[in-house]
Amino acid sequence: MTNRILNAEMRPFEAGWALIETVIAVTIFFILTGAVSFAGVRYVNKARQATAANEIAAFSLALDSYYLDCGMYPSEEQGLDALWAVPVTSPVPSGWSGPYLTRKDIEDSWGRDYIYRRPGPEGLPYAILSHGADGLEGGEGPDADIHSWKN
User: How far is CA 27 from CA 14, 16, 19, 33, in A?
Assistant: First the structure.
């Protein structure tokens, strides 16, 4: 009986959640979700850069193994595919004993092919690079290039 008395005394706007309360709750939820998402994007970009740097290091090891077996690095035309399958373009190596990679995927963290250059800068025999998130040469932060000679 007490509940009936309380319910009878309550005004209609005090009976439950009002629309404005729901809007405020949803707004707070979206603000918190947005803040967490914004912070998470920064970590995703750092993870992609670290993954690209690690993959470039793995390519460098595979290229050095290729060199030890074949006495030369793959030509620019043969590219990094020479680490997975015997090259068919000249110069065809006689000592190839690969595959030198455990997987054929030769794309960076942003879905673009790594760039293989021969010869590399500063007197190096080769260069491997990714142009980062924007896919353009240069840049800073997540758009920065990742190089085999600067990691």
Answer: 21, 19, 12, 10
For residue 142, whether the previous peptide bond is cis, meaning omega lies within 30 degrees of 0, is no
CA angle at 131 for the pair 150 and 87, rounded to the nearest 5°: 85
Q: What is the domain class of 2-147 according to CATH?
A: alpha beta
In sequence order, the β-bridge partners of residue 112 are none
Distances (CA, A) of 71 to 77, 100, 125: 17, 15, 12
Eight-class DSSP state of 74: P
Question: Domain residues of the chain, as ranges?
Answer: 2-147
DSSP letter at 71 equals: S
Q: pLDDT digits over 31-64, tens only?
A: 888 777 777 777 888 889 999 999 999 999 999 9
The Cα 26–Cα 52 span in angstroms is: 38
Torsion of CA 100, 151, 68, 109, to 10 degrees: 20
pLDDT, tens digit (0-9, with 9 covering 90-100), for 55-114: 999 999 999 999 999 999 999 999 999 999 999 888 888 889 989 988 887 889 899 999
**Helix spans in 13-73 (H):** 19-70
Q: How many CA atoms lie within 13 A of 63 on its CB side?
A: 25
